[in-house]
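ping. complex inputs:
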Amino acid sequence: MQVDPFMQSLGLKYPIFQGGMAWVADGRLAAAVSNAGGLGIIGAGHASGAVVAQEIERARSLSDRPIGVNVMLLSPHVEDVVKVILKAHERITVVTTGAGDPSKYLPDFKAAAIKVVPVVASVAQAKRMARVGADAVVAEGMESGGHIGKLTTMALVPQVVDALNIPVIAAGGIADGRGLAAAIMLGAVGVQMGTRFLVAAESKVHPDYKKAVLKAKDIDTVITGEYAGHPARVLKNPMANRFMRLEKKEAAKSNPDFSEVEAIGNGSLKTAVLTGDRENGAYMAGQVAGLVTQAQPAADILADVYQQATQLMGGD
Amino acid sequence: MTNDEIFSKVQAIIVDQTGEDADKVTLTTNIKQDLDADSLDIFEVINEIEDEFDIKIETEEGIETVSDLVTFVEKQLADKE
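pong. complex structure:
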């Protein structure tokens, strides 16, 4: 399988991004993925600029390969995080962005020679990103874990590919070589995977959370926040059930007040990642959790996915 | 283009995108809150407005009501002349 020139230009051996999962994707995981030939991405999430700076430092101490950072645009620290990235620009190859419109930060990133790859969930959003100068987009379907849009990967990716003249990376519902091969068939130049890397040997995710992902079946994810706003895909657990029950109850009222629901959600991903507490932690994961059955080192994940896709596509 | 003309075009775009009845989309309507539009709907509306009026909307910051949108379009059109 030929790696697309855009992915090659980023210095990648495999056309695979590791999703910049908040709290999960730290400097160690990103470095492991990058060292093995994929693109490791540090998830800034809601972390402060200082924490992101530390993780960049850590990734850089472990790897001299290309590294990315995902900027979560809803974070209260977004301005600081952007400053940290711009300061470290010679050490950052790619910035991906999530949950919003990164237009106003684009000129500074581009001036710093950082490739900007926003995560998009619709054609209109993708077109807008292309117009303001994005280098590529990640088109992410609602099969993915964490915050999601409405379209599925199968429907979204080819429509975004048709609408843009820049490379498209497919995400959502991809966990093996079949997914990578399918994404290439849909017109993508590569894929971004989250859930499979969440359980990687180098991932710091609490063992109980990892176990839940490895054990999960196809129908074990649910969407929280469908009424309260910012829908997110998580594994069913006591926290998710409590959240959804209260959310539905509020939504049925004429004047719903979601503050109590939001209070359950606040900090729940951090709780899951650090403590594994299933009563209070949000076990974010994609629908492919049912496909992810073994915890492997990042290098093995990348090699497996790539080899399977190559074989399926009839190449060598 | 008069304000009324701008409003009726903006209204038509929002009606089209959100599936609401035209009488629910007035100048004081808050696009996100009153019409349950999410951020993807907003991108859609902004794209359509950019095409319709041949203007560029760099950020949706500060745009909450239909009136904000109309004022923005008005200003952009005036700047073009």
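The interface with chain A takes residues 38-40, 43-44, 46-47, 58-60 of chain B (CB under 8 Å).
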